[in-house]
Inverse folding.
């Protein structure tokens, strides 16, 4: 569940169909797996020793613990017990089975385990709210005076929630993922109220909101998805444009709004969002024109805009856009080791050339018909 994700350059269960064939071919080109939005902060967090979760749920060493579902490997959500074997899983996970995945027993019925779920919820609420000594000169001075200064390790809770949301998302337990991400967003909002719109907090919230948009989109709730993506754009737009991950996440969120507008048949709105994403990506390559992935992103955005132009009846604009993207990718030089990028480049080029060839065939057919 990246952007940046902030959290998810993990595979996202996108729509399996699209209203336009061109859009379907390019759908995944801009949506790469997201990174956890808390990673940067983790690297620069307080030098003091981090508190360790007794159940193994620390942000850098997630394990399957007593509160985990062995199917999605995330924390239990809507804990449900199989009858008669009594093995427990998330409701959404076990509902797909007729036999218990652990013991193979026939599942006669599934019952909610509210007591266990209450324990899991209390665990989540309290996780990483441990307080530890501040390892700083100020902390040492207060210790000498007989006082101990503590700080709230809220960072670990954010990373903890995001990682479990990503696990649930990949396992198609979308309600679980949405619940964890919503808690994370609430945490970040409360921090913003105290600390203001800092770059780090806005970046994290923008990424989390984008992941929430992905959840809603996968659940078929397009209106909520658009709302989350728009709010993600709002926060990410406040940030400096010199951070590559932030600009990438911003452009992806804009594209996803465009996708949803496109599927809804609102082509003018779709073009507006695709064009905004294109402009963000053009600004990036002005200073990083040799970065292959960013050049690819621009080519994908050009194709998205051109596809809408064609459907709006502006064939010249469409052809110019497709051709500009082709020229850009044909002149792109890649290292021999960049096999993954080369594969993506060839995939996009194949689509772009097919669009230009399709129009040429139509023109030739019309000429022959009137000859």
């Amino acid at each position: 569940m990246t952007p940046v994700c902030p959290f998810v350059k993990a595979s996202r269960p996108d729509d399996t169909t699209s209203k336009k064939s061109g859009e379907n071919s390019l759908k995944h080109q801009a949506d790469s797996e997201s990174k956890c939005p808390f990673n940067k902060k983790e690297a620069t967090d307080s030098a003091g020793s981090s508190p360790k979760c007794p159940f193994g749920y620390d942000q850098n060493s997630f394990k399957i613990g007593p509160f985990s579902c062995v199917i999605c490997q995330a924390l239990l959500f809507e804990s449900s017990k199989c009858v008669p074997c009594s093995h427990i899983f998330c409701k959404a996970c076990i509902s797909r089975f007729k036999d218990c995945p652990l013991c193979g027993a026939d599942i006669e019925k599934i019952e909610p385990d509210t007591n266990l779920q209450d324990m899991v919820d209390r665990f989540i609420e309290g996780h990483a709210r441990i307080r530890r000594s501040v390892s700083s000169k100020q902390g040492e001075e207060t210790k000498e005076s007989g006082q101990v200064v503590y700080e709230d390790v809220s960072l670990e809770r954010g990373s903890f929630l995001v990682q479990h949301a990503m696990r649930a998302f990949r396992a198609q337990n979308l309600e679980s993922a949405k619940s964890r991400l919503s808690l994370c967003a609430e945490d970040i909002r409360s921090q913003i109220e105290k600390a203001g719109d800092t770059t780090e907090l806005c970046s994290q919230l923008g990424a989390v909101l984008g992941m929430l948009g992905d959840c809603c989109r996968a659940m078929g709730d397009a209106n909520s998805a658009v709302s989350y993506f728009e709010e993600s754009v709002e926060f990410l737009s406040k940030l400096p444009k010199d951070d590559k991950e932030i600009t990438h996440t911003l452009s992806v969120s804009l594209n996803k709004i465009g996708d949803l507008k496109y599927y809804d048949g609102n082509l003018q709105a779709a073009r507006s969002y695709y064009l905004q994403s294109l402009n963000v990506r053009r600004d990036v390559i002005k200073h990083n024109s040799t970065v292959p992935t960013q050049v690819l992103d621009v080519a994908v955005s050009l194709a998205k805009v051109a596809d809408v132009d064609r459907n709006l009846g502006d064939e010249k604009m469409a052809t110019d856009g497709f051709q500009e993207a082709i020229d850009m990718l044909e002149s792109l030089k890649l290292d021999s080791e960049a096999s993954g990028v080369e594969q993506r480049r060839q995939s996009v080029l194949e689509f772009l050339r097919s669009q230009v060839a399709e129009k040429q065939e139509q023109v030739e057919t019309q000429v022959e018909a009137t000859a």
Q: What stands out?
A: The beta strands are 79-83, 88-90, 109-112, 131-133, 150-152.
